[in-house]
């Protein structure tokens, strides 16, 4: 099996055509014709991941966040990105990224987030980039907040509560936006969304929700997206199981890369 065998399956699962125009997805480093010895899936690619992959004999890394966000950018010799690229080249590791195409693909990051929130009746709007659905039963905002923050183990969660909302007011319609919410808001009011669940959002977007009378819950960028990359790895293992086992190719998930820690975890 060569890298391109796995990449072709990923392109089938999350076609590049689904990616936003500004996004940079696909091959970041290396050669897709190389024989695969091991695969590492990660949300973000760190130097520690590269070192671990090299020591473990892994030579294909699939990331969610592109290693190179701006393909036209000049990469400075002293930059962290240059250090990573040099380390990848020295170790003979190929990197391939599926970002916003994986966000909105069927079974992708937003779909995983939707299911984990236990929502039903999914609806996609605006070119299938936005997703919203219903709670099985109306639920007080505070109860919903407590439930989802516990489910996602989000110790740094934030809630946006407009003046027209009381914490014991019931909500029924929930929009999901993995990672960061920074898009248009017209579709939220058009579809009578009560609350937006996302990873993070800009100050200006939070204020906009307040004025529109729409609640918001920020669970953390990592928390809303790690489930999607784990799901992709599971799909690859299941779909290509025979070839992976035949060639003895291990598939691993990278160590946690959430940069935020609570006070209890500072000594870890």
In short:
The chain has 268 residues and is α/β, with parallel strands linked by helices.
Described by strand count, sense and barrel closure, the largest sheet is: 6 strands, mixed
Just give the CATH class of the largest domain: Alpha Beta
Kindly report the oligomeric state of this protein: single chain
What form results from the Cα inertia axes?
elongated
Secondary structure tally: strands: 11
What is the assigned CATH homologous superfamily of the largest domain?
A: NIF3 (NGG1p interacting factor 3)-like
CATH architecture of the largest domain: 3-Layer(aba) Sandwich
| Count of helical regions | 10
Overall tally of structural domains:
2
The overall pLDDT average reads 92
């Amino acid at each position: 099996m060569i890298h391109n065998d796995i990449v072709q399956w990923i392109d089938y699962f999350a076609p590049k055509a689904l990616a936003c125009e500004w996004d940079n997805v696909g091959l970041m480093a290396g050669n897709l014709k190389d024989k695969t010895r091991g695969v590492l899936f990660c949300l973000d690619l760190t130097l520690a991941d590269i070192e671990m992959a090299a020591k473990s004999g892994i030579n294909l890394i699939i990331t969610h966040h592109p290693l190179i966000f701006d393909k036209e950018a000049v990469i400075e010799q002293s930059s962290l990105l240059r250090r990573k690229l040099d380390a990848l080249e020295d170790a003979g590791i190929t990197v391939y990224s599926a970002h916003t195409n994986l966000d909105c693909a069927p079974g992708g990051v937003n779909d995983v987030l939707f299911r984990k929130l236990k929502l039903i009746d999914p609806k996609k709007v605006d070119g299938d980039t936005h997703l919203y659905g219903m709670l099985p039963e109306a639920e007080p905002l505070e109860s919903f907040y407590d439930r989802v923050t516990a489910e996602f183990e989000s110790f740094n969660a934030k809630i946006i509560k407009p003046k027209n909302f009381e914490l014991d007011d019931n909500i029924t319609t929930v929009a999901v936006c993995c990672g960061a919410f920074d898009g248009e808001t017209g579709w939220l009011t058009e579809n009578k969304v009560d609350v937006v669940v996302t990873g993070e959002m800009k100050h200006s977007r939070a204020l906009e929700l307040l004025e529109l009378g729409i609640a918001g819950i920020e669970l953390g960028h990592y928390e809303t997206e790690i489930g999607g990359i784990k799901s992709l790895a599971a799909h690859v293992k299941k779909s290509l199981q025979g070839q992976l086992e035949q060639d003895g190719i291990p598939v691993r998930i990278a160590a946690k890369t959430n940069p935020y820690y609570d006070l209890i975890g500072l000594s870890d």
